[in-house]
């Protein structure tokens, strides 16, 4: 068995970046802000796999590193994607695909229980280990806020240009609106029509699979639910985060997001003088083929996994031990990745993760911020 320590090629930031948290520094200096809020995601449509937990652990450790290196106040905000589809069906008449989200199918109480089940103990442990406070907010709660709806309306006003940034191949960035009676909404939004829009109100017409045509009015105060494409949703969320005059927002995402974030950066430029928030991309966990671990591929049995892949790497609830021990393993692993940008700006196969853990030298590391915390 191979016993060599972690070996990574020189990263493109070599010589410019000595710790990946320094990606925050330019905007921290230019804004003069003394508080940073890191934003990361939480998926509730099934148990998290290792890649998801690596990204979230990175968020805690990056926040701790920012606090220790920059002397700023830090917070961590997780967005829980309760808008993910829970169930799907096709219209027998038109063939159009309809879906119902976790929020609409299960309700807020069950969504909260799922979030706690998948992340509660882990986040509590990571927060205790790093001293970084965190909060979790559902997409449903985010889109209900006045700021979100104002930014959504502002994006509609720029849609002539924005649509080609958010969907460069065809210029379609449809919205979807769940039927107010049953919560089902058309997946593609093909039959959703924007009737009228200004900065204060937008009216849509949509078709429910069971209840036919209905109209929705979106205003800063209206309760109408807003469903957006992935890039459009992230643009609006980041525009809302950037409104915080007291804190610099920092976006933490898996490295598979880099190409999409290129488009988000361009979307920000649609507003003159608007600066996209700093982004930090975290290492992706890969199957043997080099494809990112994906719930869909794992469930379909097409994920090309090596014999070294442990069941808990694909489903964190299968971890054979305590949650604090799991958190300690994650902290050790991500601290090793953060020890040099060349280790952080790359991906890891499950085979390599298994090898690093079997070496036994990662569990002794406790923080990623250079040991300045006791
Ligand atoms: Zn309906």
From TrEMBL:
Protein origin, superkingdom: Bacteria
Name of the protein: Uncharacterized protein
């Amino acid at each position: 068995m191979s016993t060599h320590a972690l070996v990574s090629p020189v990263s493109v930031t070599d010589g410019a970046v000595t710790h990946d948290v320094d990606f925050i520094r330019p905007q921290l200096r230019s804004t003069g802000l003394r508080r940073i809020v890191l934003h990361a995601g939480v998926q509730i449509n099934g148990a998290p796999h290792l890649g998801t937990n690596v990204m979230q652990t990175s968020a805690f450790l990056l926040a701790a590193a920012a606090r220790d290196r920059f002397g700023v106040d830090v917070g961590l905000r997780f967005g829980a994607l309760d808008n993910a589809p829970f169930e799907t069906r096709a219209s027998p008449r038109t063939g159009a695909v309809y879906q119902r989200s976790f929020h609409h199918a299960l309700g807020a109480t069950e969504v909260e229980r799922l979030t706690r089940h998948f992340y509660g103990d882990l986040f509590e442990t990571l927060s205790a280990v790093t001293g970084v406070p965190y909060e979790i907010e559902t997409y449903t709660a985010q889109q209900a806020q006045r700021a979100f709806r104002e930014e959504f309306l502002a994006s509609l006003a720029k849609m002539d240009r924005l649509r080609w940034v958010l969907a460069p191949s065809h210029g379609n960035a449809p919205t979807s609106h769940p039927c107010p009676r049953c919560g089902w909404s058309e997946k593609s939004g093909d039959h959703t029509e924007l009737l009228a829009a200004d900065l204060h109100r937008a009216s849509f017409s949509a078709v429910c699979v069971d209840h036919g045509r209905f109209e929705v009015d979106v205003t800063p105060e209206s309760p109408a639910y807003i469903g957006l494409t992935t890039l459009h949703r992230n643009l609006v969320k980041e525009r809302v985060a950037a409104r915080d005059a007291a804190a610099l927002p920092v976006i933490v995402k898996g490295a598979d997001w880099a190409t999409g974030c290129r488009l988000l950066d361009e979307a920000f430029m649609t507003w003159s003088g608007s600066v996209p928030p700093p982004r930090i991309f975290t290492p992706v966990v890969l199957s043997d083929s080099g494809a990112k671990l994906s719930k869909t591929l794992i469930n379909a049995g097409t994920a090309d996994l090596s014999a070294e892949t442990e069941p808990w790497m694909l489903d964190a609830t299968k971890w054979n031990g305590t949650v604090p021990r799991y958190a300690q393993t994650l902290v050790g692993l991500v601290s090793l990745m953060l020890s040099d940008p060349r280790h952080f700006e790359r991906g890891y196969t499950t085979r390599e993760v298994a090898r690093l853990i079997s070496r036994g030298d990662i569990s002794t590391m406790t923080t990623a911020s250079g040991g300045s915390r006791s």
